[in-house]
Design brief:
The protein is an alpha+beta fold and 270 residues long. The protein has helices at 8-22, 28-35, 39-51, 84-88, 95-101, 161-170, 178-191, 197-205, 210-222, 226-234, 262-265; strands at residues 26-27, 55-59, 62-65, 91-93, 112-116, 124-127, 130-136, 145-150, 154-159, 241-242, 251-253, 258-260.
Length: 270
Amino acid sequence: MPTPVPSITKSRSRLSQVLQQSGDLVSVGDVSRTLRVERSEAAKLLSRWQSQGWLRRLRHGVYAPVPLTALGQTQVLDDPWVVVPELFGPAYIGGWSAAEHWGLTEQLFRSVCVLTTRPIRSKKETIQGIEFSLKHIRPSVMFGTQPIWRGSVKVVEISGPAKTIVDMLGDPALGGGIRHVKECLDEFLKEGKVPPKELIATAERFPNGAVFKRLGFLLEQRGGPEELIEACRERLTAGNTKLDPALPSGRLVTRWRLWSAASWARGGPG
């Protein structure tokens, strides 16, 4: 006599129970805790729900529910940010993604910028057709973030406006290049929502002296504020660095100990 197979209705009901507790992502632990089954049984249930088309596997042991409207589609994540804590945490949204969130730029980027303390094999990872641009950071850099709600029960960390600027000054690639970082800095200072001195306080905690060199140089390019320029001068470290490691740097601006393109040294990003 064949072994009875749980009805689709019962199976869907059990999945609904799990989703009420887990929210946007489902793991073996979520199923085990909610249904009070062994982890091995929970893994089998997840595999079954995936084969039934109700879940989509994101990574080993992590699944996303497939909305009815998305059945048959290859991408099921309405909000890619919700996977960041589970797949990359401890981590936060930063760089150009945070700049977009805080209104520091109108430029749109296709990938999600994530700074993570987890070891990474590649700087880019594609999940459900969505590209994540990853940067490994030390735990000491995990500061200056704010929690925001995304999805039903997920809290995602994102760098605050000042930390976003400082991160991009520390690594211009996080801002899509120094020209775009300058635009974000201009918008940050123009908005006036955050005290400018918070930039200095945030940069002081950042373990990279290049931040003050780039910040002082860019502030001088825009004509102030003078108090911030002076604060950067007082905090200059020894050694020379590049304005943007990705760009040609043929001229040394000695007062900022900064190598830059000749067009920048003359007063603008030509």
